[in-house]
Amino acid sequence: MKSANRVTGVAAIGLSLIYIFAFVYYGVFWNFPGQSDVQTKMNFLAEHQSIISAVSFITYILFGLVLSILVAGTVRCLQQAGEMQKSITGSFWVFVGWAGDCEWDDCNQWSGLCD
After folding, report:
1. In 3-state terms, what secondary structure has residue 102?
2. pLDDT, tens digit, for every residue of 78-105?
3. Could you say which residues of the chain have pLDDT below 50?
4. Residue 70's CB: how many other CB atoms inside 10 A?
5. How far is the C-alpha of 88 from the C-alpha of 37, rounded, in Å?
6. How far apart are alpha carbons 56 and 33 in whole angstroms?
7. How far apart are CA 48 and CA 44, in angstroms?
8. Angle, vertex CA 86, rays to CA 91 and CA 11, nearest 5
9. Do 34 and 26 touch, CB atoms closer than 8 A?
10. Residue 61 gets which letter from DSSP?
């Protein structure tokens, strides 16, 4: 169980680092010519295609893979959780379902806009 917790913790730290990296890149280094003509914008994209592809891969694909590891680890940890912790996390998911306009039906499945 300790190794699963360690992997889950590393995944959480990895997600935060990827998020910070993307925030810094798009906030500081991304200098897209927003008020230019179409030709200037296309030239910018063509000149920076490799870095844009690499950052997109990191922020979408790698983030998604690490997120799946985090979710799997969290589910495993919650399976062994106490009743108090399960009720708190259950309340959270009821709120998420409500905010997303979804319902938990009698067959233990999400229904509504989640379909």
Report:
1. strand
2. 776 666 666 666 666 655 555 455 554 5
3. 99, 104, 106, 108-115
4. 19
5. 53
6. 19
7. 6
8. 95
9. no
10. I
